[in-house]
Design a protein that fits this description.
The chain is mostly helical and about 375 residues long. The chain is built from 15 helices and 8 strands. Strand 1 and strand 2 form a beta hairpin. Helix 4 packs antiparallel against helix 11. It is globular, with a radius of gyration of 21 Å.
Length: about 375
């Protein structure tokens, strides 16, 4: 929360307390403002929160531990299909969300460890290629596991997933407050997802200043030096993969129950690239950067999608570029501009563990 408050232009440095309250007010009031333009925009905000969860999880792996993962969306698929198997008519199993979520987190963490073991000695391009292959294997596996025994229903996907039941409330149904006033289900999902995001931020910030977070920072900066001072880099890598995968699995469950449908097409390589772009665009190794990057790159394409067709018709008389093509162009341009202008991202990570910084704060100079 403090990092987000400090990132607020002008107000963040002059009055952090006011900036903090502004961030809280925006988070709470965003769906109310979006509803003025239609329910579609509230749904966009719901998906933005899911992307924030994904970006936070990938930031653990890429930003904190320095391990380039191009197959992260595979853990998203593991969580979504866990919900589809355990809370849908597909196998006629209908477990509550409080059981499905921990199981999906465990399965995703196991998948993360499974990926981590073979790549312990790989870094850079080689690690990226292996993780990319892992992501594609999972997607193809889900796409073809419908013969001779129909497990995933193949490319048709699985529908009619059970909605989230929270203390007896079905989040997929509107809550009728009065005869003329009802709370839309999209608002219920938004605030539930927001609570998950806030809990994730608190957990990650505590993790970042713990011994594990400092070990990841040392391993990211210089793995050989980290080994020399006694850090078990093998265990730290496996922990990074498993924790990052856990966030992906939880986000996958939320996606499946919110959408009510899962299919292999939702977990393509381009989704992994999109989440990685969000992390790089916002600022690797920074919680606030991952959040801002996810919000911008998940909301802007939808704005373009609604504006692209009427603007092109007004200018050229017909549509030249499909909105989906513009979305991919936006992601590509965002990466190129960030690499050229701000390689550290919109909100660069601070050197929180610099000893010299603390000495200077006490008035000690070199």
């Amino acid at each position: 929360m403090n990092e987000l408050a400090l990132a607020v232009p002008w107000l963040g440095k002059r009055n952090p307390q006011a900036a903090r309250w502004l961030v809280i007010a925006i988070a709470i009031g965003a769906p109310l403002v979006a509803m003025m333009f239609g329910r579609t925009w509230v749904r966009v905000l719901d998906f933005a929160l899911l992307y924030i969860l994904l970006a936070l999880g990938l930031n653990l792996v890429v930003g904190f531990a320095g391990l380039l993962d191009l197959g992260y969306i595979a853990f998203y698929a593991v969580g979504a299909y866990t919900a589809a198997f355990l809370a849908s008519p597909h196998f006629d199993v209908h477990l509550p969300i409080w059981i499905v979520l921990p199981l999906a987190a465990c399965f995703a963490a196991t998948a993360g460890i499974t990926l981590g073991f073979p790549v312990l000695r790989l870094r850079g391009d080689y690690l990226a290629i292996v993780t990319l292959g892992f992501g594609e294997i999972v997607r193809i596996f889900m796409n073809n596991l419908n013969y001779p025994i129909n497990i995933t229903n193949g490319p048709q996907g699985i529908n009619s997933l059970d909605p989230i039941m929270l203390f007896g409330w079905d989040l997929s149904r509107n809550i009728q407050v009065t005869e003329d006033l009802a709370i839309n289900s999209l608002f219920l999902y938004y605030y539930f997802f927001l609570a998950c995001v806030v809990g994730s931020i608190i957990f990650i910030q505590r993790l970042q200043i713990s011994r594990v977070g400092r070990a990841w920072a040392a391993m990211r900066d210089d793995e050989l030096a980290a080994k020399a001072i006694g850090i078990n880099t093998r265990n730290m890598k496996l922990l990074a993969f498993s924790l990052g995968a856990t966030f992906g699995g939880v986000s996958g469950v939320l996606f499946g129950t919110f959408q009510g449908f899962v299919s292999p097409e939702s977990f393509s390589l381009m989704e992994s690239i999109a989440v990685l772009t969000m992390v790089v665009f916002g600022g690797m190794g920074n919680v606030a950067g991952a959040i801002v990057g996810a919000i911008i790159l998940s909301a802007l394409p939808e704005i373009l999608r609604h504006l692209a067709v009427p603007v092109q018709n007004a200018l050229f008389g017909h549509v030249i570029l499909d909105p989906e093509v513009l979305r991919m162009l936006l992601l590509s341009l965002a990466m190129i501009l960030m690499m050229l202008l701000r390689p550290s991202g919109l909100i660069p990570a601070n050197a929180k563990y610099s000893h010299i910084r603390h000495l200077k704060a006490k008035g000690v100079t070199e």
